[in-house]
Amino acid sequence: MRPSSHLLAPGFLARSLDEFKRFARIAYTQESLRTATTPYHLLDFTNPDTITMCKTMSDADMGGFSKVALDQIPATATEPAHMRFHGNISIDLPPNRPQIQRTGYAAWRNKDRGPTIFGKSLWDVDPYLYLALRVKSDGRKYFVNVQTESIEYTDIHQHRLYAQRPGEWETLLINWSDFVRTNYGQVVEPQNEMMTQKVRTLGIGLTDRVPGPFDLCISSMWATNQVEDGDTHRRDR
Asked: How far apart are CA 110 and CA 43, in angstroms?
């Protein structure tokens, strides 16, 4: 029996090797038996390849007029390499489409990752308390979105991105347990605990419906148990 061609593709082998290295590190350090101390990097936008694994969404997908783009910005003497999520929000309704009653949103998330030799590519962040984000915000009302392998495929767990110093780089921490389960933008019950063992996608959306430009820079996103000093801001419920 010969393996299918996609199982021999370079991406499949690289993902499998990365997973093997991670499992080996956990076994060697015995992190599964104690509190994890090593940060678990999820999306690192200092690597220019990461942006190619992300996609954008906006009301333009259904005829609206909002604009959204993702740009890779190289490092400078004062800023890290990062991804720039930017565009313009419009609340104008598309003509001749009376079924569209609401516009004015833009978002991005990582694409579903390909399989590995260990199975479907999912992030297991269960050993960690926080999602950490290194960002520079314009102060608008962004939400962090998390999708898991939940029973309802369209469920999204959300939490407000509370920037403390708009216009400056800062590290924000969000407790995984503080995310709220939503479906098609509405809070739903019951508020089941998020399946942190099977995280599928991460992303950020802007849904404040305030017309005008927006600009959010993201350097990296990772899972951690560490609350660092300095410009780190923890958001507790």
From this structure: 8
